[in-house]
């Protein structure tokens, strides 16, 4: 039904190949922009709805794993052994240590005092995490 209506309104082969490609490109750009906007809205909504991830933490990294301590409330602690992580990825400004496909401990590089600390951390990752950098 829709095809018949569409063909009646716009007869087949009335568009040139270049105009069809142009329309497709414009549609793809619109969907890309909409997806980007929706993703940003989702990320912002998740961040602002979760008060725990907005709090400041201190990380202690050693041979046993990573301990995160809430700087406001030192009783609030989280400890992850190196065995808890399934993979790790490094980006320009952060490290992602994945506990599962969609759950990760995110450690910004600005948390480290020096490039030597970052090298030491990378050595821990390469030593203890199977799918590492």
From TrEMBL:
Q: Which residues form the YcxB-like C-terminal domain?
A: 64-125
Q: Which InterPro entries match?
A: YcxB-like_C
Membrane spanning stretches = 20-43
Q: Alphabetically list the UniProt keywords.
A: Membrane, Transmembrane, Transmembrane helix
Q: Which domain of life is it from?
A: Bacteria
Q: What is this protein called?
A: YcxB-like C-terminal domain-containing protein
Annotated source species? Candidatus Syntrophocurvum alkaliphilum
**What does UniProt list as this organism's lineage?**
Bacteria, Bacillati, Bacillota, Clostridia, Eubacteriales
């Amino acid at each position: 039904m829709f095809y018949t209506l569409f063909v009646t309104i716009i007869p087949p082969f009335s568009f040139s190949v270049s105009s069809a490609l142009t329309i497709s490109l414009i549609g793809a750009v619109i969907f890309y922009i909409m997806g980007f906007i929706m993703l940003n809205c989702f990320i912002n909504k998740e961040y602002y709805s979760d008060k725990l991830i907005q709090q400041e933490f201190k990380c202690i990294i050693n041979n046993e794993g990573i301990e995160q301590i809430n700087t406001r409330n030192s009783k609030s602690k989280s400890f992850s052994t190196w065995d808890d992580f399934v993979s790790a990825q490094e980006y320009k400004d952060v490290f992602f240590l994945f506990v599962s496909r969609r759950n990760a401990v995110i450690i910004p590089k600005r948390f480290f005092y020096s490039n030597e600390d970052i090298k030491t951390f990378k050595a821990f990752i390469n030593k203890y995490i199977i799918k590492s950098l």
